[in-house]
From TrEMBL:
<feature type="transmembrane region" description="Helical">
    <location>
        <begin position="247"/>
        <end position="271"/>
    </location>
</feature>
<keyword id="KW-0067">ATP-binding</keyword>
<feature type="transmembrane region" description="Helical">
    <location>
        <begin position="136"/>
        <end position="157"/>
    </location>
</feature>
<dbReference type="Pfam" id="PF00664">
    <property type="entry name" value="ABC_membrane"/>
</dbReference>
<feature type="transmembrane region" description="Helical">
    <location>
        <begin position="20"/>
        <end position="37"/>
    </location>
</feature>
<dbReference type="GO" id="GO:0005524">
    <property type="term" value="F:ATP binding"/>
</dbReference>
<feature type="domain" description="ABC transmembrane type-1">
    <location>
        <begin position="23"/>
        <end position="310"/>
    </location>
</feature>
<dbReference type="GO" id="GO:0034040">
    <property type="term" value="F:ATPase-coupled lipid transmembrane transporter activity"/>
</dbReference>
<keyword id="KW-1003">Cell membrane</keyword>
<dbReference type="InterPro" id="IPR003439">
    <property type="entry name" value="ABC_transporter-like_ATP-bd"/>
</dbReference>
<protein>
    <submittedName>
        <fullName>Cyclic beta-1,2-glucan ABC transporter</fullName>
    </submittedName>
</protein>
<dbReference type="InterPro" id="IPR011527">
    <property type="entry name" value="ABC1_TM_dom"/>
</dbReference>
<dbReference type="GO" id="GO:0140359">
    <property type="term" value="F:ABC-type transporter activity"/>
</dbReference>
<keyword id="KW-1133">Transmembrane helix</keyword>
<keyword id="KW-0547">Nucleotide-binding</keyword>
<feature type="region of interest" description="Disordered">
    <location>
        <begin position="584"/>
        <end position="604"/>
    </location>
</feature>
<comment type="similarity">
    <text>Belongs to the ABC transporter superfamily.</text>
</comment>
Length: 604
């Protein structure tokens, strides 16, 4: 998108307040005309004062006061009108800034997880704030300055030809030269400005990345290296920025020089025309005022173009996100089936992230309501992708997923997700109170329901130990809680939602043995009466699953109950042997993890 079509789109954002916006444009037109009338009336006053009366007496105040009064009237009107325009423009810009921010916020929250997997959340926040504030400045400058400048340059400047075409031609030549110099500088700086923006983005993303990984930076003693890397980017940024600044300095010098030259030319040419009786002194004064005013407008216009180019990368990034369409969307005939029973079937499902390699290939299985299905297999074998297809993070490229016999693409997305509770590997809690975090599962949950969910999730004790109980605010991503406490809260949250289908995506993999045992109890409660899918690396945790699906390279290579699979002596049996049947070697190999497995192995 070119810079000017970008600007056009930014102005188009005002369409929600079209009446006020058009009113401000008309007010600008009137204001620009009044500002042009002032020098003309001033020139008239000079002419009246220098015009001798027939009796040779000097012109008195009586002869000139109506013109002076009109001049003062226009001046006063301009001040009041400019104030009214400024105030309303300010209000409009503030209102619209909040509107576009809210639109961006809603849109980003609706974008699929596959989009969020590839974009840094800090970058999205920055883009929302910077994009909206760039728009705010552009709207404000449009109504306060650019609209009046546009009218002055394209309507009133040609109109001066009717006033005195000779002096008007000088003004037009000056504006023409100014335009050429600016266009040249824009051409020269276009590529450089793009480079500046690239370095700016690199600077922001490097800093964001480092801030997000402070523990790693400190423990790996990388502070110096990270600072050095930031300085290198800063040096590149400065190297690209300096030539751009030099070119814009050329514009400033050219504008000052052309201002002085134009005033001088009007003065000299005007003096010659005056000696030939072709202009009056008042007209010369009028045109000198015109020139000064136009130069002011041109300087404003250059400042604006410079600002627009500098903001273009931010605006593009803002609109790129806003234009990203969710890959999964509601089918026009999609329905809300209410609460589902939870009979899930995958029928020949395949999915590819990059349209080259299949992450999941021809996966078929079914689960009756209330059954527990475990997905196991080596890392990267397609387990999370398979379950992502169940709650429609993305849609299959082949095959279909059904619930209660209905293709999930025929179910409204909100309705589908209301029926599926997901406990993520990373608990993902909000920097809000424990209660607010739990209520995300069910906004209108009663105190008794909250208590019951906490009890089932084995979370009641630690919550009551918090300084403010349920009111305790748990910090960014729940950092003031331990990993196990966070995980139990996320299970309680899912339990409050009370969906017929539950998905546990490696919910216990990062926990110690004691916590894992507590969470196992919570999981057992959470799965009762629901169709449950569990991704697990520790096979002890899926001992009681109704069916285990063993994944390899995106395909199901074995399926059956724990005992059947162990008896079969295939891939699962090998994995189980490594984890459960040789606890001694595990103990030696993996310390605490080994002990956990051994303990669980014994309990099986
Ligand atoms: N967002 C993504 N973009 C591109 N490829 C992806 C993405 N997510 C996963 N993949 C690829 O798809 C394949 C399956 O990944 P998936 O996460 O489903 O495996 P997994 O069995 O759940 O692994 P793990 O046990 O390590 O979580 C892998 O090769 C992975 O690299």
């Amino acid at each position: 998108m070119s810079v000017f079509s970008l600007y056009w789109r930014v102005l188009g954002e005002l369409r929600g307040h079209a009446k006020l916006a058009y009113g401000l444009v008309v007010a600008n037109l009137v204001l620009a005309a009044a500002q042009f009338a002032e020098p003309m009336l001033f020139g008239k006053i000079i002419d009246l004062m220098t015009h001798e009366q027939p009796n040779g007496a000097p012109v008195g105040l009586r002869e000139i006061w109506p013109t002076v009064a009109a001049w003062a009237g226009f001046g006063l009107f301009s001040i009041v009108a400019a104030m009214a325009v400024g105030l309303n423009a300010d209000r409009l810009a503030h209102r619209c800034r909040l509107v576009v921010m809210a639109r961006y916020f809603d849109h980003v929250l609706n974008l699929p997880l596959s989009f969020h997997a590839n974009v840094h959340s800090g970058r999205l926040l920055q883009s929302m704030l910077e994009g909206a504030s760039a728009m705010f400045s552009l709207w404000l400058s449009f109504f306060r300055e650019n609209c009046a400048s546009f009218i002055a340059l394209f309507i009133l400047l040609p109109a001066t030809l009717f006033y005195n075409w000779r002096l008007a031609s000088l003004l037009i030549v000056m504006v023409g030269i100014f335009y050429l110099v600016t266009a040249l500088v824009l051409r020269r700086t276009d590529a450089l400005q793009a480079l500046v923006e690239r370095h700016n983005a690199a600077l922001a993303s490097h800093a964001g990345d480092a801030f997000g990984n402070v523990p790693v930076v400190q423990s790996f003693t990388r502070v110096h290296n990270e600072s050095q890397a930031l300085r290198r980017i800063s040096d590149d940024l400065l190297a690209a920025q300096l030539p751009v600044l030099s070119w814009w300095a050329v514009v400033v010098v050219a504008s000052r020089a052309s201002a002085t030259m134009t005033v001088l030319a009007i003065f000299l040419y005007g003096a010659r025309l005056h000696s030939e009786g072709l202009v009056t002194v008042g007209e010369i004064v009028t045109f000198i005022n015109f020139a000064t005013m136009l130069i002011g407008r041109l300087e404003q216009a250059v400042g604006f173009v410079n600002f627009l180019f500098a903001q273009s990368a931010r605006l593009r990034e803002f609109y790129t996100t806003l234009d990203t369409r969710p890959m999964v969307d509601d089918h026009p005939n999609a329905i809300d089936p209410g609460r589902l029973l939870g009979a899930v079937a995958f029928e020949g499902v395949s999915y590819s992230y990059d349209a080259k390699r299949m992450a999941v290939r021809n996966v078929s299985f079914s689960a009756e309501p209330g059954e527990t299905i475990a997905l196991v297999g080596s890392t990267g074998s397609g387990k999370s992708t398979t379950l992502g297809l169940l709650h429609r993070i993305f849609d299959p490229v082949e095959g279909r997923v059904t619930i209660d016999g209905r293709d999930i693409r025929d179910i409204q997305l909100d309705a589908l997700r209301r029926n599926i509770g997901v406990v993520f590997q990373e608990p993902m809690l909000f920097a809000r109170s424990i209660e607010e975090n739990l209520r995300i599962g069910k906004t209108d949950a009663s105190s008794a329901e909250i208590e019951a969910a906490l009890e089932l999730a084995q979370a009641k004790d630690f919550v009551s130990r918090q300084s403010n109980g349920l009111e305790t605010v748990i910090g960014e991503r729940g950092r003031s809680l331990s990993g196990g406490e966070r995980q139990r809260l996320s299970i309680a949250r899912a339990l409050l939602k009370d969906p017929p289908i539950m998905v546990f995506d490696e919910a216990t993999s990062a926990l110690d043995a004691t916590t894992e045992r507590q969470i196992q109890k919570a999981l057992a409660a959470a799965t009762k009466g629901r169709t449950t899918f569990v991704i697990a690396h520790r096979l002890a945790t899926v001992r009681n699953a109704d069916r285990i699906l063993v994944f390899d390279h995106g395909e199901i290579v074995e399926s059956g109950s724990f005992d059947d699979l162990v008896k079969k002596g295939g891939r699962f049996a090998t994995l189980a042997a490594a984890q459960l049947l040789t606890p001694e070697s595990d103990r030696a190999d993996s310390g605490e993890g080994g002990r956990a497995i051994a303990t669980l192995g014994e309990s099986l």
